[in-house]
Amino acid sequence: MACVTASPEAATVERPDVDEVVQPELPWITLVWDDPVNLMSYVTFVFTDYFHYARSKAQKLMMQVHTEGKAVVSSGTREAMERDVQAMHAYGLWATLEKSDA
Amino acid sequence: MTQFRSRRRGGVYVVLPPYAAGLIANLARQLIELLSDGEVVQPSGGDPLEAMLDFDAPRDTPDDPALLRLLPPAHRGDDEAAAEFRRFTERGLREGKIRDARVVVSKLEDDGDTVPDDLEFELDPQEARSWMRCLTDLRLTLAARLGVAADDESVWEGLPEDDERLPVYEIYGWLGYLLESLIDAVRR
What we know:
- The structure holds two protein chains of two kinds.
- Chain A is α+β, with helices and mostly antiparallel strands.
- In chain A, 38% of the residues lie in helices and 19% in strands.
- In chain A, strands 2-1-3 form a three-stranded antiparallel beta sheet.
- The longest helix of chain A is centred in the middle third of the chain and has 14 residues, at 55-68.
- The model of chain A has no long low-confidence stretch (mean pLDDT 86).
- Helices cover 59% and strands 7% of the residues of chain B.
- Chain B has helices at 18-36, 48-52, 65-70, 79-109, 125-146, 153-157, 166-187, and strands at 3-6, 12-16, 119-123.
- In chain B, strands 1-2-3 form a three-stranded antiparallel beta sheet.
- In chain B, strand 1 (3-6) and strand 2 (12-16) form a beta hairpin.
- Chain B starts with a strand and ends with a helix.
- The interface between A and B is medium-sized, with 21 and 34 residues.
């Protein structure tokens, strides 16, 4: 995530124009939700196959979905999250995207 | 006997008894029909490009619980965003699932003979994934039809033997076993 900071080495110190301050865009997140149908092995497989997560990370996320009802599986721009949600739906998982509150 | 065996480079060698092949093909064809849902996927008249770009086509949340689970909402608590997302993506999602189901059907129809022997064929890594996704879609569809809920195994086990849902529930379980075997073979 980019943020705008003034460099202490800048030769000229300018008064920042408040109107030009860029609000860093809140990242978006993809959530995968638990469902009564999908096999634990399949959910783990999908996380390794699509996100290319290491098996240990994929299993950890799968267990989070299983025990907590949901897990954040990725974060980034809205467009990227829309792609991830579409991919999850293509695999038969249920996913949603939302703005991260963090 | 049904088998899924690992092959080099992520391929899978499959052996299916005739009843299994016939059943899967049948279910996959029904899934294609469900996903086509009266929609004209190949427009017969008019400009096909225009039909593809028809983003203003209303995209209501499906009424059919099976379709709703196959094409779920992408936003919680924001019906407008969900409808917008559906308008732009539902068609592509349907078509992807139909493609996967067609991969399955084509493998099972390859054998022109009606000899009642086991069907044997190989899946490359991409075909294996189409199979996994299609088997998952079939499980989701059957579960929606049956009303499967979390941790309800004891309910199903307690049903009288002649309950007409039991054969379908058994198929649902069997598809899960197939998927598990296929995942094992791909992962190895």
